[in-house]
Amino acid sequence: MLAAASSPAMKDAKKPTRASRLGGRLVGVASMLLLVSLGFVLGVTSSNAMFIRYYLPFMPPLRSTATPSSPPPLSPSTPLPPPSSSSLPAAQDQQLGSAGFLSPGGVTHNMTDEELYWRASMAPMVRRTPASRVPKVAFLFLVRGELPLRPLWEKFFAGHQGLYSIYVHAHPSYTGSPPADSVFYGRYIPSQRTKWGDASLVEAERRLLANALLDVGNERFALFSEACIPVYGFPTVYAFLTGSNTSFVDCYENGGSRSRYRPFFATRNITLARWRKGAQWFEMDRALALGSVADASCFPAFRDFCVGRSECLIDEHYLPTLVSLLGWGRRNANRTLTYADWKRAVNRHPHTHGADEVTEELIRGIREDGGGRCFYNGDRNGVCNLFARKFSADALQPLLRLAPKVMGFG
């Protein structure tokens, strides 16, 4: 009887009670909430890091909050390694604020051209910056590698820090570097191969513009080669460029320019009436630089046309035609500020001045060339040329001797 009576009681003890079932469900819900919260925290941290890496390429990576493990002690004979950016005091770290946009610290980045153009084409709608700034002139150098006339440019820039920026596009195989005390040191941007008369040459120009646009302090942009020189001192050049209400892109039409037009361009909405020609060496304001970098129709048309052609001379037509298509009108002076001697051209290149030609008369002649026909802000002005080309490497020493007397610097 006892055994029979106790058997139902034992079966009831094995059944889960209502309270135990509720407790199990609460434990399951709590575990799920914990996993969701952990995933959310990891996602936010990862997305913040990706945002800074993609949109702010000049900003350092996010600092980790984890405590690093102590490195093994160094022996007395082991030299100490140079401090890395992560080991510097927190006060030296860049802050995620307007400073990174107003004045980027360097020109190196890991962006593709597509990412670079997208980032550079951004323009603030609020014209007034949150901090006071002085407009800068961006000097863009499109070179093969070395800058043989660099000492002359260094004397030109001396004493004017904060009023200019320098960007150099060289052949990607170039591994040299200016000395550490040069204003050109660390100013070589990520580059790609270029070829004369090819679309890659214009791509390099646009790449230089895009890198310079990342610094919102740059208001004017001028393009040079390694054979260019300034013929006025920096104060004159700076005042002329920053005080101008126009860009200086050589832009004209004549029988010679129209002879290169092809029906292909009509299929890409570039008519003969808008077709223009001009010198490659420009000086432009920020608005036109943004228009060039953001261009998604004119340049692709020229690039596609050049496929399979050894010399399409796109550099003489793309930018002048773009200015025409954008309807820049009076906002462009339709002339270049860089002198070249085309009276003695050789194989479709202007004359190159060697050391024996560099005289006071030559430089003064370049400075005074066409002075009666050039306009500046609507009025006739005696300055037509701020720069000149082409000068050979052996012209450096004569130029350095003449610079203080004729050009106003050095």
Summarize the structure.
The chain is α/β, with parallel strands linked by helices and 410 residues long. The chain has one domain.
Strand content: 5-15%
Question: Helices and strands, in N-to-C order?
Answer: HHHHEHEHEEHHHEHHHEHEEEH
Please tell me the overall pLDDT.
80
Q: Largest sheet, described in full?
A: 4 strands, mixed
Shape: globular
Distance between the ends: 121 Å
Over the alpha carbons, how many angstroms does the gyration radius reach? Answer: 31 Å
Number of helices: 14
In the residues, how many domains can be counted?
1
| Class by alpha and beta content | alpha/beta
What low-confidence regions span 5 or more consecutive residues with pLDDT below 50? 1-22, 40-96
| Number of DSSP strand runs | 9
Helical content (DSSP H or I, runs of 4+):
25-40%
Largest sheet: spatial strand order: 2-1-3-5
What's the assembly state of these chains?
A: single chain
Topology (SSEs and partners):
Elements: H1 2-14, H2 18-55, H3 99-102, H4 113-120, E1 136-142, H5 150-157, E2 164-169, H6 199-213, E3 218-224, E4 229-230, H7 234-242, H8 255-258, H9 263-266, E5 283-285, H10 286-294, H11 298-306, H12 318-325, E6 338-339, H13 360-368, E7 375-376, E8 379-380, E9 387-388, H14 396-407
Parallel strand pairs: 1-2, 1-3, 6-9
Antiparallel strand pairs: 3-5, 4-9, 7-8
What does this protein structure show overall?
The chain has helices at 2-14, 18-55, 99-102, 113-120, 150-157, 199-213, 234-242, 255-258, 263-266, 286-294, 298-306, 318-325, 360-368, 396-407, and strands at residues 136-142, 164-169, 218-224, 229-230, 283-285, 338-339, 375-376, 379-380, 387-388. With 410 residues, it is an alpha/beta fold. It has one domain. The strands form three sheets. It has a four-stranded mixed sheet. Helix 5 links the parallel strand 1 (136-142) and strand 2. Helix 4 (113-120) packs across helix 6 and helix 6 (199-213) crosses helix 10 (286-294). The relative contact order is 0.10.
